Amino acid sequence: MSQRAWGEAVARAYARRIEILQAGATLQAVAALRHLRLHPLTGDRQGQYALTLHDRWRLIFTVHGTPPNRVHIEEVTIHHGD
Q1: Is residue 35 within 8 Å of residue 20, measured between CB atoms?
Q2: Which domain holds residue 47?
Q3: Could you tell me which residues come within 8 angstroms of residue 20 by beta carbon, excluding any fewer than 6 positions away?
Q4: Which distant-in-sequence residues (6+ apart) come within 8 Å of 44 by Cβ?
Q5: Closest CA to 54 of 79, 22, 19, 20
Q6: Arithmetic mean of pLDDT, 1-12
Q7: Domain containing 29 — which CATH number?
């Protein structure tokens, strides 16, 4: 399904990012992987985070608990703000 909706490269990156989020003990551990460009969002998305999937595609998610006990995927989208 994801490959059909986003393309093969984005679908592969999505699967890898999910594995990283599952393995990461803290957001700081994930942020240490600088190529992911993990950052908090602002405005109406305050409390959510984004990280790069592929090219201009990004994964937006919310973290619940400390350390993250649960991550809720909000959406996969193309970022137009750069």
Answers
A1: no
A2: 2-78
A3: 30, 33, 36
A4: none
A5: 79
A6: 81
A7: 3.30.2310.20
